[in-house]
Write a structure and sequence with these properties.
- With 328 residues, this protein is an alpha/beta fold.
- The chain has one domain: Rossmann fold, CATH 3.40.50.
- A ten-stranded mixed sheet has the order 5-4-3-6-7-12-11-10-8-9, sandwiched between helices. A two-stranded parallel sheet has the order 1-2.
- The protein is globular, with a radius of gyration of 20 Å.
- The two termini are 25 Å apart.
């Protein structure tokens, strides 16, 4: 949450330069509060496991969140009961008239296929377009991030020689960025994928900023300058046992798989792994929700007016313009 300080306090300018939320008395008195509306497009086969992991992180924020769960209509899930899907999920066609402060698009186990060969690709492209007018900030995860970068920016993926699998240390690219504010300079992120984006194509795209990367995994947290779009290549949401479950699943199926790197103590699968990324996962999601809370319009339908590539980080008038419109 932001701190409310006198407008003329000398510390205000310093805090703003460090990308710390500070609002003056006038804006604080004028603020109106409502729950943030969040929609999760869950493309994973085991939907209950994925939704639990994501909701666990969202719940760490002190903000009140209203959650909708979305599924695609052009693909039938075989690993989640129909009763659960009918009870808790809606198709995009049902939700597309809604506006949301935040959206999360998960990964999917289709990364080795060309994007256009995925059976729900056409529907997903409609959803990608819809987010630009109906969602203030969309976080794409793993394959969802690769798909989003490909569709919005033409950034391709390519096949790795072996699966990128384990917990990898990452370097922070900007210690004062809002989204990663409070991160250690080195932070761990789980990865589990067979593909990687083209870093040369990414470097040519000046609408995107890299916040976290490593030599082994490449760029991991990528954002537009106003956080309308966030692309996370790793799995901050993973629980301590997730990679172990994937490893033993593949071993039992006779698939070629190496022990996940930097995960089991002494690389011994018989030892319980240690959770080394939880604090940064919580911080990432808290920072994201806090940012959206400060910048979203009170009248949520005004989200469609928000600029796609420019925001509070570079233009402090962005959030104030929404508040002025709301007052009127």
């Amino acid at each position: 949450m932001p701190i409310n300080i006198p407008n003329e306090l000398p510390a205000k300018e310093i805090l703003e330069s460090e990308k710390i939320f500070a609002i003056d008395d006038e804006n604080a008195r004028r603020q109106r509060i409502r729950p943030l509306r969040v929609v999760i497009l869950n493309l994973m086969p085991k939907k209950i496991e994925t939704e639990t992991q994501i909701l666990r992180l969202l719940s760490k924020s002190p903000l009140q969140l209203d959650i909708d769960l979305m599924k695609v209509s052009s693909h039938e899930s075989k690993n989640t009961s129909k009763d659960h899907l009918v009870k808790f999920y809606e198709n995009w066609d049902v939700l597309k008239e809604n506006y949301y402060d935040c959206m999360i698009i998960t990964g999917a186990p289709v990364e080795e296929m060309p994007f256009e060969d995925v059976d729900y690709w056409e529907e997903l492209t409609h959803i990608f377009d819809w987010t630009k007018s109906h969602v203030l900030s969309t976080m794409h995860i793993c394959w969802g991030a690769q798909a989003g970068l490909y569709y919005h920016y033409g950034i391709h993926k390519y096949q790795l020689k072996e699966k990128l699998f384990g917990i990898f240390p990452h370097e922070l690219c900007d210690e004062y960025d809002f989204l990663t504010n409070g991160f250690d300079e080195i932070h761990n992120v789980p990865h589990s994928r067979h593909t990687k984006i083209d870093e040369k194509e990414l470097a040519k795209e000046d609408r995107l900023v890299v916040l976290s990367r490593s030599k082994k995994t490449g760029s991991t947290i990528i954002v537009t300058k106003g956080y309308r779009q966030i692309f996370v290549m790793g799995h901050f949401e993973y629980g301590v046992d997730t990679l172990a479950q994937e490893y033993f699943r593949d071993v039992n199926a006779g698939k070629p798989i190496h022990v996940p790197e930097n995960y089991f103590p002494n690389d011994d699968p018989h030892q319980r792994p240690i959770l080394t990324w939880r604090s940064h996962a919580n911080l990432l999601y808290r920072n994201w929700l806090n940012y959206v809370y400060q910048t979203t319009p009170y009248h949520i339908e005004k989200i469609e007016k928000a600029p796609l590539y420019q925001g509070f980080r570079e233009d402090h008038g962005y959030a104030q313009a929404f508040r002025k419109e709301d007052d009127e």
